[in-house]
Design goal:
The protein is an alpha/beta fold. Helices cover 43% and strands 14% of the residues.
């Protein structure tokens, strides 16, 4: 029964969507408390469309069955990642060396951020360099409490040079929840990075997801996608929902 039903996929028109393993078109899901069974469900239903799963904030330190959940994600082809707040927590409490030792042992991907604490750029660059010798580092830029409004061209160049694989743009830097998206900042960052392929835009809200897909295409890198919203996002990317149905068709037929 299932094999015949899955033939429905043959109707799906190719919109140029990248497939795993991919360098752009990434979806980073946000895990705010799934158990191992929930992780199995995510892998089974939407695993083809999720590249990384971020264990939110610093919650990995209080998550039960973390070993099992990480094992499930890795077996399902979803790479687990620790959120940037965990690095800031370790920095604030003087435990970054211990965190680094943990990462050396587990090879888990991490974000390094300075969105809440005022971390000197030299310190942030030093830790990007040291952690990137052992795992993939995605460096988060932008403020969580208030916008940073920095010289992004300089910041982007220095963080890539230090070893960041991708730069994750804090959602509140480009448009706090309920506010309009600061398109001028998006344009500045894309220009500074030489394109959008090495940037990841946090897009918790659907209106943010739609903005980036319509502006930068179906293969824009997006993060902080609720696990229950992964198929909604993939539908947006492929023109399978009313919000992008006409837009996707027009893009294919332009």
């Amino acid at each position: 029964m299932s094999s015949s039903l899955e033939k429905i996929r043959d109707l799906c028109v190719d919109v140029g969507r990248t497939s795993k393993p991919r360098e752009h078109g990434l979806t980073i899901a946000l895990d705010v408390g799934l158990g191992p069974l929930g992780a199995q469900d995510l892998c089974a239903v939407a695993g083809d469309y999720v590249d990384f799963v971020k264990i939110a904030w610093g919650s990995s330190m209080i998550t039960g069955s973390l070993d099992k959940k990480v094992e499930v994600y890795r077996a399902g082809g979803l790479e687990p990642m620790f959120g940037g707040t965990l690095f800031e927590y370790a920095y604030l409490h003087g435990k970054v060396e211990e965190f680094l030792a943990f990462v050396k042992d587990t090879k888990i991907h991490i974000e390094i951020s300075d969105g809440t604490l005022e971390i000197p750029l030299a310190d942030k660059l030093k830790w990007i360099e040291r952690f990137s010798a052992h795992t993939a580092v995605y460096s988060e830029i932008g403020g969580k409490i208030s916008p940073h409004n920095r010289d992004w061209r300089s910041i982007v160049a220095q963080e890539f040079a230090a070893g960041a694989q991708k730069l994750v743009v804090e959602g509140r830097e480009i448009g706090p929840v309920g506010d309009e998206i600061r398109e001028d900042v998006v344009d500045e960052l894309v220009d500074a990075a030489g394109g959008s392929e090495k940037l990841v835009f946090e897009s918790l809200e659907r209106k943010q997801q739609l903005f980036f897909i319509k502006k930068l295409g179906p293969n824009v890198n997006l993060a902080n996608i609720r696990t229950q919203d992964v198929l909604t996002l993939e539908s947006f990317r492929r023109g399978l929902k009313e919000h992008t149905l006409r837009h996707s068709w027009a893009r294919l037929n332009q």
